[in-house]
Structures are given as structure tokens and as C-alpha cells.
Write a structure and sequence with these properties.
Elements: H1 2-17, H2 24-42, H3 47-99, H4 113-116
Helix pairs in contact: 1-2, 2-3
Length: 120
């Protein structure tokens, strides 16, 4: 029995620490079994409590996965916006430099290729 507890705890730790879609079934199973074991012990073997806690553990695993994915998506969106702002600022600066009046007898430098085709 102690070996089973140790295996379940290690599976739960692995599923929480590793953020990978391949560990989702392991996380569901580990949290479901952990909930079932805990409810079985606390309710003196009531089947209703055991089944409910099993479902609760699986739902908790799914919720944790969704929260990690949303946090990851939010960070990616933030980085993309920062990159877009930097490109916009660079383009505006290049266009302002290019729009400055040239010295008499001198030509303006050509626009860099990265900003020549942008339509903002």
C-alpha cells in the first residue's frame, strides 16, 4: 500500500511540474486517483464520495492545464505586441529621417528595404 501511495504521489508531481500535452492523461489519472484515495479514507469507504472525488480530481487537472495554457497564450500575445510596436517605431523613425530636407546638392539616402514596402 505504501508503494502505491509513493507511485501516485510521484505521478502527481510529474504531471504538475511538466507542462506537456503528453502528460495530460497522467495528470488526470494521478489527481483522480489521489482524490479517490483521499475521499475513501475520509468518508470511511463511501462509494459516492469516492466517485465524486475522483471526478473532482480529473476536473481539477483539466482546470490546471487550461490555466497554464491561457497564461502561456497571454505571454505570447504580449511578446507579439511588443515586437509589432518596435517595428512600427523603427519604421516611423526611418520615414522621419528620410523625410528630412536634404542638404543642398546631396541626395537623401534610400529607405531601408524593411520599411520601403510598408503601408502604414
Amino acid at each position: 500500500m505504501k508503494l502505491i501511495k509513493l507511485v501516485l504521489l510521484s505521478l502527481a508531481n510529474v504531471s504538475v511540474l511538466v507542462d506537456c500535452s503528453s502528460t495530460r492523461p497522467i495528470g488526470d489519472a494521478a489527481l483522480g486517483v489521489s482524490g479517490a484515495y483521499l475521499a475513501h479514507q475520509l468518508s470511511d469507504g463511501s462509494p459516492g464520495a469516492t466517485v465524486s472525488a475522483t471526478a473532482g480530481g480529473v476536473l481539477l487537472s483539466g482546470e490546471l492545464l487550461l490555466r497554464r495554457q491561457e497564461a502561456s497564450r497571454k505571454a505570447i500575445r504580449h511578446r507579439l505586441r511588443q515586437g509589432q510596436e518596435r517595428r512600427r517605431e523603427t519604421t516611423v523613425l526611418a520615414l522621419r529621417v528620410h523625410a528630412a530636407a536634404a542638404q543642398p546638392g546631396q541626395q537623401r539616402p534610400p529607405l531601408p528595404r524593411s520599411t520601403a514596402g510598408t503601408a502604414h
